[in-house]
Amino acid sequence: MKKKTASIYMMVVGLILLSVSTAVAQENNSQQKLPNVQVKDMDGKLMNVSSFSNGGKPMIISFWATWCKPCISELESIADDYDNWQKVAGVKLIAISIDDARTNGGIKSLVSSRGWKYEVYNDYNKDLYRALGIANVPYTIVLNGDGKVIERHAGYNPGDEYHLLEVVKKIAKL
Fold first, then answer.
1. Residues 6 or more apart from 91 whose CB is under 8 A from it?
2. Strands of the 139-143 sheet, one edge to the other
3. Residues 136-174: pLDDT tens digits?
4. DSSP secondary structure string, 89-145?
5. For residues 80-112, b (16+ Cβ closer than 10 Å) or e, as one string?
6. Which CATH number is associated with domain 33-171?
7. Which letter does DSSP use for residue 173 in this model?
């Protein structure tokens, strides 16, 4: 009986900690802007992410890697309708690869072969990845027109892109 009581106690404590951390994360999301960190564009030129903007319209930042199949599936799903997303909500998607020196050579060819119209960068040292507290890819962040983080989403399941579009429409007030 003691083991069962201890197990229930641990579950309750875990749930309380999860709800507190979720509430804190949601509160922090509404305040967080992109940090002062540099990434490389496809030509190797350094770019400060704090300067990313979309003229007061929403932005999506998708963290991905060339070796991550769910990442590529998510970006492909969005690519299928990206032109429409831009017309409807004025959204800009920025794809930021976390590929390191061993795998970053494949970024440019993968993006080219897929015909993605996104801005693509490489977080070669994972500085941005760490600064935003990301644990794994795919990971998507939605920013409002003021550049504040409104929503975060880890992982990808087919159909997640529809929720993402609804979030963007809401931010754009459509």
1. 54, 57, 58, 59, 60, 85, 168, 172
2. 46-48, 38-41, 119-122, 92-97, 59-64, 139-143, 149-154
3. 999 999 999 999 999 999 999 999 999 999 999 999 886
4. H--EEEEEE---TTTGGGHHHHHHHHT--SEEEE-TT-HHHHHTT--SSSEEEEE-T
5. eebeebeeebbbbbbbbbbbeeeebeebeebbe
6. 3.40.30.10
7. T
Question: What is the pTM assigned to this prediction?
Answer: 0.80
Give 64's contacts (C-beta < 8 A, 6+ positions apart). Answer: 71, 72, 74, 75, 95, 96, 97, 98, 137, 138
DSSP 46: E
| Host H or E run for residue 71 | helix 69-79
Domain coordinates in residue numbering, the chain: 1-31, 33-171
Q: Which two tokens stand for residue 146?
A: 């003021």
- Angle of helix 160-171 versus helix 82-89 axis, rounded to 10: 20
Within 10 A of 160 (CB to CB), how many other CB atoms are there?
A: 18
**How many angstroms from the chain centroid is the CA of residue 97?**
10
At residue 34, the pLDDT reads 92
